[in-house]
Design a protein that fits this description.
By secondary structure, the protein is an alpha/beta fold. Helices cover 37% and strands 16% of the residues. Bound molecules: zinc ion (ZN).
Length: 449
């Protein structure tokens, strides 16, 4: 393998991991190529948020036509079939088991038919492991179905006007059949529906896809949330039907699994109702989506665990922080995607076991230590804070590459450690240690004074 200067060779030290075993073209197209098996369940306890003290946290294996995902697992986000500044082979070397791309962005550019011709997402981007695509609903809807701000989990002190735009400012509108929106690339008018999203995701060819759902904010009214949950259910049913039709029609391709998405914002009864509806359909797994207040994130996973058969893997869409990951894992989350490590890295924000810090600060100009003491990533083995500080100030691409490698490895290793702790029967001990260290100074690694 020839190495570009921006990407290290694949001999990066990392924890041993079963490599994805599938070939580039995957298996036979049979649905039996996708299934989940539980390895270790957390014992029920007084802390259990599920019915009767159930705790749904577990380790397991998601088998896909392109290899296995050992869960709980972190899913790095390669939005446009690329992790910005880091090659897929580098992601594999630092322990990534799978990648998630964005159906909406790939539909816009280069077009889902290009990925289909290329032999699917994995082959197109030179990644032979498992892949996910989201449905595009989040991007289409957050474009403009009215959200002036993204779905802040904390809306304290915000008014509805701060979050939901009035009609003439919107770029997207929801009706019973789907969503009409203006392309942010060129302003042209497009339409997404359950059937269109399924067609796009089948052509992109990821191992795991999500049903097209309507996204709401915590600022939508209760009655809007109720109508939205019912609409999402009707769209889910159409997705299952269209998925079945496309699976039969597009022969000779590896089986693609479809997850239903549970919405319902902060309302326990709506979440439980939505979970029961999604559980009643023939999905391979479930996605937990939509805006949730931070304090309810573990409970929400448990409500869904109460309704969902154990053999359906659960993906938490768009998670953002270390404590949220721990709460979701304890209550049954199996996989987690998150753009934060890469986005933060490009701005110089570095995750460590002792919290975050910004390596661009002047105090690091002459700091020749690694980004994080004790980290096993390629960046920390070969580069200093002073160098990454310099690269980011000089706007050299390698700065983003090195910082991203560290941050992605941070989250992958965090989930590796959590998985090992559940198997070893010491999850609570590990959780206590992680939270005490990471939040010792409010999540900040370097406190002045
Ligand atoms: Zn590192």
């Amino acid at each position: 393998m020839s190495d570009s200067p921006a990407n290290p060779p694949s001999s990066v030290p990392h924890r041993p991991m079963t490599p994805p075993s599938g070939g580039a073209t995957g298996g036979s197209g049979s649905r039996s190529a996708f299934f989940f098996e539980t390895v270790t369940r957390l014992p029920d306890s007084a802390e259990g948020k599920g019915r009767g003290g159930a705790r749904y946290g577990r380790t397991g294996i998601i088998h896909t036509p392109h290899g296995d995902i050992h869960t709980p697992a972190f899913v790095p986000v390669a939005t446009q079939a690329a992790m910005k500044g880091v090659l897929p082979e580098t992601m594999k070397a630092l322990g990534a088991q799978c990648l998630l791309a964005n159906a909406f962005h790939l539909y816009e550019r280069p077009g889902d038919e290009v990925l289909d011709e290329a032999g699917g997402l994995g082959r197109f981007m030179n990644w032979d492991g498992p892949t996910f695509t989201d449905s595009g609903g989040f991007q289409v809807l957050s474009l403009g179905a009215g959200f002036k701000k993204t779905l802040a989990m904390d809306v304290t002190g915000m008014k509805s006007d701060d979050v939901i735009a009035d009609g003439k400012q919107r770029l997207a509108f929801v009706d019973e059949d789907g969503v009409t929106f203006k392309s942010p690339l060129n302003g042209s008018l497009h339409r997404f529906s359950a059937e269109i999203s399924m067609g796009i995701q089948h052509r992109i060819g990821a191992d795991i896809m999500f049903a097209f759902d309507e996204l709401t904010t915590l600022m939508n009214t209760r009655s809007y949330q109720e109508r939205s949950v019912e609409r999402t259910f009707r769209w889910a049913r159409r997705c299952v039907e269209e998925h079945r039709r496309l699976t039969e029609e597009r022969t000779g391709r590896p089986y693609q699994a479809l997850y239903g998405v549970v919405q319902g914002a902060n309302y326990e009864d709506l979440r439980r109702h939505a979970a029961a509806e999604i559980a009643s359909l023939d999905f391979d797994g479930v996605g937990i989506g939509g805006a949730i207040e931070k304090r309810l994130i573990g409970d929400t996973c448990a409500w869904i665990g109460d309704a969902m058969p154990e053999n359906r893997p659960r993906h938490v869409l768009g998670i953002a922080s270390v404590d949220d990951i721990l709460a979701c894992v304890e209550n049954g989350g199996d996989t987690f995607d998150c753009v934060a490590p890469a986005r933060c890295a490009r701005n110089g924000a570095i995750f460590t076991r002792d919290g975050r810090y910004n390596v661009k600060r002047s105090r690091f100009r002459r700091d020749f230590g690694p980004l994080e003491e004790g980290c096993d990533c390629y960046t920390c083995a070969h580069y200093s804070r002073a160098y990454v500080n310099h690269l980011l100030h000089a706007r050299e691409i390698n700065g983003a590459t090195l910082a991203t490698i560290h941050n992605e490895r941070f989250f992958i290793r965090l989930l590796d450690d959590i998985r090992a702790s559940i198997d070893a029967g010491r999850f609570e001990e590990l959780r206590g240690g992680i939270l005490a260290r990471f939040y010792a100074h409010g999540g900040r690694a370097f406190v002045e004074g």
